[in-house]
Amino acid sequence: MSGVGRGVSAPSPTSRALDTLADLAEIRGETSDAIGYRQAATFISTLSPDATAALLNRAREDRLHGDPGIPARLHRRIRDLAVGGAEPIISAARDALPALFKALFDLGVVNSSEAALLVRRLAIVSLGDLQHALEMGRILQTFDESFDARLRQAAPAIASDAGMMPLGRARDLLESLSAAITADAPALDGLTPSGEVRRFEPLVSELILVARSHDPVTAIEQVCASRGIDAVVHRGPRRVVVTTQGSEVDIRVSAIDEYGTVLFSTTGSRAHLQAMRSRGGHLRLAAREEDLYSQAGVPFITPEMRHGTGELEAAAAGTLPRLVSREHIRGDLHMHTIYSDGADTLDAMVAACCSLGYEYIAITDHSEHAGSSRTVSRRDLSRQRAEIEAARERYPQITILHGTEVDIMADGTLDFPDEVLASLDIVIASLHEAERHDGKTLTRRCLQAIRHPLVNVIAHPANRIVGRRAGYPLDYDAIFAAAAETGTALEVDGAPAHLDLEGERAREAIAAGVTLTIDSDCHRARWLERQMAMGIGTARRGWVERRHVLNTRSIKDVRAFIAAKRRRR
Ligand SMILES: [Zn+2]
Ligand SMILES: [Zn+2]
After folding, report:
1. Among 3.30.460.10, 3.30.1380.10, 3.40.50.150, 3.40.50.2000, what is the CATH number of 165-317?
2. What pLDDT, in 10s, does the model give residues 363-379?
3. How many whole angstroms from 467 Cα to the centroid of ligand 1?
4. Which ligand places an atom closest to the C-alpha of 407?
5. Measured in angstroms, how far is the CA atom of residue 432 from the centroid of ligand 2?
6. Cα 7 to ligand 1 centre (Å)
7. Strand order of the sheet with strand 207-213?
8. What is the whole-number distance in angstroms between the Cα of residue 201 and the centre of ligand 1?
9. Cα(364)–Cα(402) distance, rounded to whole angstroms?
10. What is the pLDDT of residues 12-31, one digit of tens each?
11. How far is the CA of 340 from the centre of ligand 1 (A)?
């Protein structure tokens, strides 16, 4: 291609490639690179094809030093471009972008210069940013209708492709990343999970950490250099988006006087933010979240309650619940040992619970025919009884209840006969096997267990598996009424796979007068606290107060709760 007779206004492929690289650098927040590429693109666009070819030749031979239009920082990259062509360099630059832009490019929704505009004009870097901007009409205000329509159509597809991460994994990932960054970034003050994780959503679409700093510029430098990070895909003056363990994490570094605002706006939910906006006008800068709420004329609302489901009205009316919290929990009534599918011995579980400060625990291994990897036979149960008696001597500071997690069988009966159940201190019943039953039959089986005088708690009533299986379609009104009437507790199970009853259901349950338990359903001593925390977070999502929860009461009251139902026999 001689190019003879072409006007200078048609950009050469080299100049176009450099412009694309400038866009991609801009998306990544690499401002100096973006300026350099842009400068080089403009310079080359003024050259004749022959002069461009000569320049690329010099680049190949590493002789760019005399070219005033090409910034020195780009010499090596323009050499690579001259040697290997633009394609591999652009494709590598695209691979190093935030996930949102990879998805937008894969779907062919925007070109690189439009994408760079989203970053430059609206600071859109993540899917959450895009959804928020669409919701607020910012795309429409800033661009045109067709661009808005394209993005509006793409956003749900990107969201469903991106998938969701279970809360347990999200918390673990953020915890280990926070530990690494905190060690490497002394300019940061505190690093808190925000977004869905802070609200204890069972499934998480965005991982966000928020920190404050007296010196955000230095702090951002330190975060970018942290060993906890695999790659930096975007950096701005107050924000770094990184990848770690294959996931993208959005890290916000706020100045001290804006920390409350950043924490509040990243925590969401969008419905809650919307409700706050309609009360308090625009979002002001605040050092503490509390200040934002008081500006809106309401008391602080805890993150777990921020769903836009009446919390602001309750706050305004002064009727916010006093939520259950960790210090209210006096015992854990659901856990497993190596007698069934637990990973630790009974002794290890008891010792761990003592160090958590619990006053009582229940050992509740799986019954004989449960579908778990290991179960407890009647003979095992008497062996376990002897072991618990010995443990009671060794650990006089804690009351150890001998219990079981008994399966509710296909016909609604229980997996142990009554005389075995009556010999135990507490009985938890579970509907593990659906047996392909419809909601009506499952409800009947559950109700039969609730009406059994020896059943004290129904564990994870919906038996959902977070992210994999929706809960059973039970008649929850009937379940709640029967539980309240018979003095049977329903569980908020803190195992990250369950988180069941989920918050909203727990809220309905307490409204129906049901007593709840919050348990770890733990299979490992070192996860007892973590799973209890997730159970508490889930219950708080359902506005649950201390008075609703059996295991906030004394062991005497727990025993009385059990005895009261047994007396109905
Ligand atoms: Zn279970
Ligand atoms: Zn269990």
Report:
1. 3.30.460.10
2. 999 999 888 888 899 99
3. 17
4. 1
5. 10
6. 74
7. 189-194, 207-213, 247-255, 239-244, 231-236
8. 21
9. 7
10. 899 999 999 999 999 999 99
11. 11
